[in-house]
Amino acid sequence: MSEAQLDPAVQHPTKLAVVAFLSGCAEADFKTVRDRLELTDSALSRTLSGLEESGHVKVRKGFVGKRPRTWVSLTADGRRRLAAHLAALQQIAADALAAVPETTA
To answer: How far apart, in whole angstroms, are the C-alpha atoms of residue 81 and residue 71?
Structure first.
């Protein structure tokens, strides 16, 4: 068995989807993340709170005109930890494939 280490903070599919989405941009507004991942406001809010607490994301609040707006971004540590998590998943998959006995045709 390998020494691949999954990041427990992003093992939940919703958390993994959020950090994966954010890895493709510098910053995204709350509405965009919510709509693209098809989440409710409350589900995304809870998810972002957990990811912010673990240091994966940064949440920034401000205004556009008089309207409040929330932006989220993946931190440098969050990017590093996502890359390590994905590498661990790839290693687990590779180990599983290597354990499958070859069949002869």
So the answer is: 21
Helices assigned H by DSSP within 11-73: 13-22, 30-37, 41-53
- R_g of the chain computed on alpha carbons: 17
Residue 54 structure tokens: 């673990």
Q: For the chain, what is the largest distance between any 2 Cα atoms, rounded to a whole number of angstroms? A: 69
Does the pLDDT at position 104 exceed 60?
no
**∠49-55-60 over CA atoms, to 5°?**
60
Q: Which residue has the tokens 């069949």?
A: 103
Query: Residue 33 is encoded by which pair of tokens?
Result: 């993340």
Rounded Cα distance, 42 and 24, in Å: 23
The two beta strands, 57-64 and 28-29, are: unpaired
The pair of three-digit structure tokens given for residue 62, joined into one six-digit string: 């401000």
23-80 pLDDT per residue, tens: 999 999 999 999 999 999 999 999 999 999 999 999 999 999 999 999 999 999 999 9
